[in-house]
Specification:
Layout: E1 9-15, H1 27-30, H2 34-38, E2 40-47, H3 54-62, E3 85-94, E4 97-105, H4 119-137, E5 152-157, H5 166-175, E6 181-185, H6 193-209, H7 225-235, E7 240-241, E8 248-250, E9 256-262, E10 265-268, H8 277-287, H9 289-323, H10 329-397, H11 403-411
Parallel strand pairs: 1-3, 2-4, 2-5, 5-6, 6-7
Antiparallel strand pairs: 3-4, 8-9, 9-10
Helix pairs in contact: 4-5, 8-9, 9-10
The structure holds guanosine-5'-diphosphate.
Length: about 425
């Protein structure tokens, strides 16, 4: 079964050549050296209505045609009625740093007449990936942990210039505790600079109003000024207004750039004056990939894990609570907390027991092996002894010994004089 537990999950892995510098070679500077040899796993999810430029942006980000051009849907073929989850993995290498990049696409999101539950299969997929990781953690042999958890979710907002739509708010509200949300204003070249600024303000206001937590890179103490400035330059751009393009254009001044050409001019993807693509890539790949991975592991996954245990405790103890005085809230909370603790303890015990059992099985096996070896050796010795006895008997009863042999035998104490 697919490690993420999703039934309608398509997955393929390809080896990809990069067309230019991408920037994840900086990862070893973001983390401890030992990870270099193992390589890195990074999973990025893209969500947004179709046609917002998701595949184009992923290809632009990693400078590779990870995403093949999707054929436009054939109207004669009936389209599925639910959001699908598809993933593509690529092993890419830059300056000897290996990255297993997985992009999880969610085709169908927001494309139906009724999109009320569009978020649901996505939450389920993210949780299935958490479960798969949890299951590995509980295994005794944790040498080869595969991390298929989603480390970042690029959420594409339609460049309407107005405000967030209900589907955007619903999605982010449902997902913000499960995944690092990175909101993106798609196809920013369709808005003027002023429209982009106003739209950003409104989007941020909506996000705040609904208490949605988007990914915030942590600021550490004693950070040097340069890093702080870089951090500030990135965070003030959120939500990133991006333009994607996979075609190279030659400008009149001879420069070759990635961009989109219009009658009124050219929008350059890699030009910070034109859009926030560079800052998005900076955060996602060059400076904060490790933060995204860490936050996923230490906060999002950890919360999921303990909530899951707490959930088990609550449902189990519910009948008890209903009978007690509802005013005894603190007592109830304490009981809940204790239930959570004992659940965790039980889980730990289970893992421990499992480990002990495996260890015991191993010991037993080596014990049996030892016995077998012992038996073999004993038999061999027995046989040798019988042979020696036999020889001795023949010597004693029969032929006289040569003086040399006699002295040898004497030394060994076989011959009484
Ligand atoms: P997806 O369905 O979200 O994966 O969207 P695609 O990446 O397939 O892009 C849909 C269409 O939008 C294509 O014709 C792209 O060329 C175009 N497109 C992609 N990115 C941009 C962008 O930043 N600006 C504009 N104006 N068009 C874009």
């Amino acid at each position: 079964p697919a490690p993420n537990g999703s039934s309608h999950h398509l997955s393929s892995i390809v080896r990809k050549k990069l067309m230019g510098y991408v920037g994840f070679a900086n990862l070893p500077n973001q983390v401890h050296r030992k990870s270099i040899r193992k390589g890195f796993q990074f999973t990025c999810m893209v969500v947004g209505e179709s046609g917002l430029g998701k595949s184009t942006l992923i290809n632009t980000l990693f400078n590779t045609t990870l995403y093949p051009a999707r054929p436009s849907p054939d109207p004669a073929v009936e389209r599925p009625k639910t959001v699908a989850i598809e993933s593509i993995s690529a092993d890419i290498e830059e300056s000897t740093v290996r990255l297993r990049l997985t992009v999880v696409d969610t085709p169908g999101f927001g494309d139906f007449v009724n999109n009320d539950e569009s978020w649901k299969p996505i939450v389920e997929n993210i949780e299935a990936r958490f479960d798969a990781y949890l299951e590995q953690e509980n295994r005794v042999n944790r040498q080869k942990m595969v991390d298929n958890r989603v480390h970042a979710c690029l959420y594409f907002i339609q460049p309407t210039g107005h405000a967030l739509k209900q589907i955007d708010i619903e999605f982010m509200r449902r997902l913000h505790t499960k995944v690092n949300l990175i909101p993106i204003i798609a196809k920013a070249d369709t808005l003027t600079d002023e429209e982009v600024q106003n739209f950003k303000r409104r989007v941020l206001a909506d996000i705040e109003h609904h208490n949605i937590r988007i990914f915030q890179a942590p600021v550490y103490e004693n950070e040097d000024e340069e890093t702080l400035a870089e951090h500030e330059a990135i965070t003030t751009k959120i939500p990133f207004a991006v333009v994607g393009s996979n075609s190279e254009l030659e400008l009149e001044d001879g420069r070759v750039i990635r961009g989109r050409s219009y009658p009124w001019g050219v929008v350059e993807v890699d030009n910070e004056e034109h859009c926030d693509f560079v800052k998005l890539r900076q955060m996602l790949i060059r400076t904060h990939m490790e933060e995204l991975r860490e936050h996923t592991n230490n906060v999002l996954y950890e919360n999921y894990r303990s909530d899951k245990l707490l959930g088990m405790g609550v449902t189990q103890d519910h009948s008890v609570f209903r009978e007690v005085n509802p005013a005894a809230k603190t007592a109830e909370e304490r009981t809940l907390h204790e239930a959570k603790l004992s659940k965790m303890e039980a889980e730990m015990k289970m893992v421990f027991q499992q480990k002990v059992q495996e260890k015991e099985a191993k010991l037993k096996q080596s014990e049996e092996e030892l016995y077998a070896r012992h038996r073999e050796m004993k038999e061999a010795l027995e046989k040798q002894r019988a042979e020696l006895e036999d020889k001795k008997r023949r010597l004693e009863s029969g032929r006289p010994l040569t003086p040399e042999k006699a002295s040898q035998t004497k030394k060994k104490g076989f011959l009484r004089t």
